[in-house]
Amino acid sequence: MNKPIVEVKGLNKTIKNKHIVKDINLTFYPGEIVGFLGPNGAGKTTTIRMMTGLMYPSSGEVFIDGHSLHKNFEEAISNVGVIVENPEMYKYLSGYKNLLHFARMHNVGKERIDEVIAQVGLDKRIHEKVKTYSLGMRQRLGLAQSLLNNPKFLILDEPTNGLDPAGIREFRMHLRKIAKENNVAIMISSHLLSEIELMVDRIVVIQNGAIIDERDLRIAQASQYYVEVGQPEQLMALLGDAAEKADNGFILSISREEVPQLTRQLIEANIDIYSIQLVQQRLEDQFIEMTGGGAIDAIH
Questions:
Q1: Could you tell me the end-to-end alpha-carbon distance of the chain, in angstroms, rounded to an integer?
Q2: pTM of the model
């Protein structure tokens, strides 16, 4: 894998003798979307504030593109874009004039403004006033604003909050495109587990201020297959302990690459195959397992 664009090393935060964030270590790679999850009060917001320089850690360090956030703040933060829930915009101005205003702050030219407008798909409405925009359009405008300085790392705090399913799907598509085409590392903190599941490559789970789990969903989602056959006894004899009985079929822990080999085995053994289906444990179920049933809520 590429060199990480962000490294969080041994991050701790103590407030009034209470250890809120405990030895957090994180890495974020170019082109990767990571979900940052945890129950209400787990320490997510405190961690994000320390990662963006809004709060100083009690100990530990954050490196962004090789720059220490606390020793070389301007160099480090220049590589970061941030969206917090519903971005604040000047509603009486057009989308374009809003971006122009923020572009001046970053010393960004009009060519870059046109690029981000195209990236988030606002070409047709960009010269209309923001007050006429739907919530989904305002979120995309906020995304365009966060991309103006061509960041290498995006932090999104509840980016789909309040969006309808179509708006969430649209936003998800734009994020995927940005991560892939711009090679940007993206961190998303959200309480919408069903959407995080479709949006991210990897999840990090924090509870009581400490990371309790980290897993790659691309691997986790391709670990088990449900197989239904006409001769279950023969399948048991063929596969033995590798086949776990489930409903009218069996669960097999195999990789995607092993499915063709399994199919050939069953055919050669004259076993009738009714179905072979990928079993996907929903992120909500995984989260409950990780946290022992702790409810996830809006960021805290």
A1: 32
A2: 0.74
